[in-house]
Amino acid sequence: MKNNFLLLIIICIGVFCFSCTKSKYTIKTSTDPNGFVYETVTNDPIGVRLYKLKNGLEVYFTVIKDAPRIQTLISVKAGSLHDPEQTTGLAHYFEHIMFKGTSHFGTTDWEKEQVLLNQISDLFEKRRAATDSLEKAGIYRQIDSVSQLAAKYSIANEYDKLMSAIGGQGTNAFTTYQGTTYMEDIPSNEIERWLGLQFERFSNFSMRLFHTELETVYEEFNMAQDQDGWRLYSTMLAGLWPHHPLGRSVIGLPEHLKNPSMVNIMNFYRSYYVPNNMAIIMSGDFDMDTTIKLINNTFGQLPPGDFEKPHLPSEEPITEVITREVYGPEAENLAFAFRFGGDSTEDKKYVTLINYILSNYAAGLIDLNLVQQQKIQNGGCGMNFFKDYGYHEFWGQPREGQSLEEVAGLLLGEIDRIKKGEFEDWLIKAVINDLKLQTIRGQDSYQNRAFEIVFNYMNESKYIENVKFLDELEKIHREDLIRFANENYKDNYVIVYKRRGEARDIIKVPKPEITPVEINRTELSSWYSEFIANKPETKIKPVYIDFNVDLQQRELKSGIDLFYIPNKSNDLFDLMYVIDMGKSHSKKLALAVAYLQYVGTDQFTPAQVQQEFFKLGLRFDVFTGDERSYVMLSGLNESLEKGAALLEHLLTHAQGDSASYFKCVDKILKDRANNKLNHNFILHVALSNYGRYGSSSSFTDILREQEMRSVDPVELTAILKDMCTYKHRIVYYGKSDINTAVDVLSRQHPLPEKVMEYPDPVIYPEADFKSSLTYFINYDMVQTNMRLLNKISIFDVELMPYVEMYNDYYGTIVFQEIREARGLAYSA
Asked: What 3-state class would DSSP assign to 807?
C-alpha cells in the first residue's frame, strides 16, 4: 500500500509538472470596457491583443511607450500567389497604384477624370487583345494621348502630402508571395486622422497615372536583371518549385508585364481587398481600448467579401540533385537549397536549430570550420518559410583559385557533421539561448514588433505558436535532430552556380515611349483642406534629453571617460570602447582589426574564443573606420564581467601566426577583386570617392599586396594590445548601476599608466574642380545608374535644418519629374 501511494504521488507530481509546462502559453479571451472581445497569450513578452471584428477584420495591438509614435501596418493576404495565371505581377502592380489617391483626393475634378480613366482602361483591354505589334504600338500611343488629358486632373503625391501633414514617416509598401503590406510610422496623437485617411484609401481606390507607374514596374523588373544575385536566387526558387507559383518572381512574368489589364487589377482589388482578408497591426504608444473603437467605426463598417482562395499545386518530392548555372559580370558564388514543409509544420523547428548550429555568425560549424579557418571566402546559410512550403538555403564564395564545386562540397560536409552528430552537446542550448536574446533585443523596437506580427499573420500561423516557438525548440533532443538531418538532407537539393561570363537569357521589358505628363504640384483637393483643418486636440509634448540626468559621465582617468545610460527595458547590455583613431591615423590598425577574427590567445584557439563568447550569451565586434575605431560587446548583463574579461584577454593576449595571416591577406585581396566586379560598389563607393577627392583619398590610400605580405603578424597583435592605451571613451548601457559598471571595468579593463595621444591623421583634400565633369564606367548591364555630386561649401551645423528642408522639398520635385511625370527611372 505504501509503495502504491508513493507511486500515486509521483504520477500526480508528473501530471502537475506536465500541466504547468503545457499551460505556460494559453489563449485567454477577454472583453474590453467597450465590449470588444480580444485574445491574448499568457506569458507573451510583448502582450499582443488580437481582435476579430464582426466583418472578419483582424486587429493586432502591442503597446511600447519608448517614443510617442506608432508603427502601423495594414496587411492584405493578396500577394503574387493570388495573381491570375494570365496576369502575373498583378498584386505588385496594385501595390504601386494604391498611392495615387481616391475619387476625393489626388484629383481636381473626379467626374471629368473618371471618364478619361475609363477610356484608358478600355484601351488597355483593346491592346491586350491585339496580336499585331504595330497595332499594339498604335493603341499605346492612344493610351499615352488620353493619359495626358487625364493627368491634368491629377494632383501629384497628395497622399504623401497628407501623411507628411500628420507627421508620418516611412511611407511605403511591399508585396510578397503571400500578401501586400502598407506601412506608416505615425505620431501617437494622429491615430484618428490616419485611420480616416486609410479608410478613404482602402475603400475608395482610384487607378490614376497608370501608364507612367507601369514604367516604374518595368524599371523594377529590368533592375533585377542587372543583379546576378537576384537571378541566382530566382533560378534556385524556380528549381525548388517548378509548378507552384513560389517558383516565379513576385514582380511577374515579362510577357504579362507587357500586357497589363486595369480591369483585372480592379477585379483583384474587389476580390481580395476586403476586411475578412485583412489585418491592421499597431505597435507603439497608444491606448488600445480607445483605438479599437476608432477602427471599428471605420474599417469595421466595411462589408466582408466572398472570395476564393487560390488553388495551388503540390510539388513532387525532389529525389536527385538539380543543377543550374547563371552567368554574369559579378564575382562567382553559389547557392543551394533543400525544400521543406510550411511554416506551421515541425520541419520549421528542426530546420531552425540546424540552421543556427551551422551558421550563427559567431560559433556555427560553417562559421568556425570554413570561414574562420579561411577554407572559403565567405559562406553561411539561412531559411525562409511560407504557408505551404519552406526552404533551407546555403551560399558560398570561393577563394582565389578555388572552384565553386569545391565550395559546395565543403558546405555539404558541414551538413554531414550534423548527420553524424559531430557537434558538441552545449551548442543546441547555446543556439536557443542566442535566439532568445536576439528576440528580446528585437522586441525592444516598436517597429520590429509590428513586422514580427505581420509575417506571422501572412503565414496564417496561430499567434500562440509564434510566442512559444523558441520554447518548443528545447523539446528537441540531439538524437531527434540527427535523425531529422539524415532523413531530409540527402541528394534532394537545387544548386545554382553563378559563374563569370556573359549574362545569358536576359529578358528586358522594353519601355514604350511616353509623353511627360503634366504635374499639378500646387493644386490641393478640397478633401485635403478639410483633412488638414481637422487637427487633433491632444498635442505631443517633446521630451528633451537632459545630458546631466539621462546620461551620466564619470572620468576614470584623464583622457578616459565613462558614459552611462541605464537600460530600463530588459536584461541586456551594450559596452563600447570608442577610440578616435582609425585608418587615416594608421593603415596597419585597420589591418590588425581585420586580422583579429582569425587569431587565438595563449589560452584559446580562434574557434574557442568565439565559442566562449557564445556560451556566455555574448557577441563582440571590433571595427575601424577612417577616423574612429570601436570595440563592442553586448548580450546578457549577468555575463558582463566575464565577457569584459574575455574581451580584454583577447585584445591583450592575441597570438597570430604566419599561416593564418597570409590567408587573411589573400581574403582581403580577393574581396578587393570581387568589389571591382560589383556595379553598386563601383558607382556608390569607388566612383563617388573619385568624384569627391580625385585620385588621392582614404579609399585609394591602402596597403598594397606587397606591403601587407611584409608585415609581421606579431606587429599587428601588438597594435591590438595597445588600442586602449590611447585616449578613449567607454559607453555602457545596461541594468547595472554606474558604480557597478565602474567596479567591473576597473577589474577587467585596466587603465594604462600613461594615456597615449593619437598620431596625426592623413588629411585628404577634396578635389578642386571648377567645372562640370562626367565620368563613365562601362559595365555589362541592362540599366544605367548615375550619381550627381555637387561641391557647395564647408560643413556648417547651423545650416542642417535648412539642408534637410531643402532635401525634402527638392527631392520630391526630382522624384515627381523624373519618375512620375516622365517614367525615366525607378528611383530618383
From this structure: helix
